[in-house]
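If you are new to this repository, start here. Below is one unmodified record pulled from the training split, so you can see the exact layout before writing a loader.
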Amino acid sequence: MSVRKLKPITPGQRFRVVNGFDTITTDKPEKSLLTSNKRSGGRNNKGKMTMRYIGGGHKKQYRIIDFKRNKNGIPATVKTIEYDPNRTAFIALLNYADGEKRYIIAQNGLQVGQTVMSGEGATPDVGNTMLLSEIPLGTTISCIELHPGQGAVMARSAGSFAQLMARDGKYATVKLPSGETRMILLTCSATIGVVSNSDHQLLVSGKAGRSRWLGRRPRTRPVVMNPVDHPMGGGEGKSSGGHPRSRNGIPAKGFKTRSKTKASNKYIIERRKK
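And here is the target side for that same chain:
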């Protein structure tokens, strides 16, 4: 993976850093795994705007991703590595031995022609999905389930990974990308390796128009609003705005909002760092 810095032939390209896409092997997605993706523009079913600063954006088709990896014991060959407009990570098209095709989140180092597998009998190689009870301790993992059979919900974005630290009883101790250490059932599955497109964090947009292409409208700073619109609004001239807080008055920057009686608190060994 690599990034490219563009020559400043226009103001929007002066600081632009783009993805090299050197690991992408095709620009034509598998048609049988595409579906429509309707935009809401931040409106609910009555047409009322319930989320601000959302709207516009380029039309996208959704790629149906196999997060469950439940075709156990059937080997699959990686046919292509593709770009997905709906996520930061790249995706891989698998051709299973029984003829079925599925998309998965691609891991770093996954190559076209490589064979991947899930379930019992799988080896701890990049791209293989195994139960936490079978993965060697210290292994770098991603696409982790939180409940057995639920499908991957954690460590799915570009460059993210977790580490399997220990096993005790029916739980495994996993250090998550946020720095949090928590217990997860051994019957949950995870994929070996780091999620692809690690250089995503190095990209630079270059101009405001590119945010509009992604469906993000301009966001108004609270300190320039009126007092009727936001707790930090009002004042003469360039006032600081008072204590940082949300539109509803909830303090920002360090104020803990997690419930002290949340059921999953007992599974968290160490909280994430600030």
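Two things worth knowing about this chain: The first helix runs from residue 208 to 213. The helical segments are 208-213.
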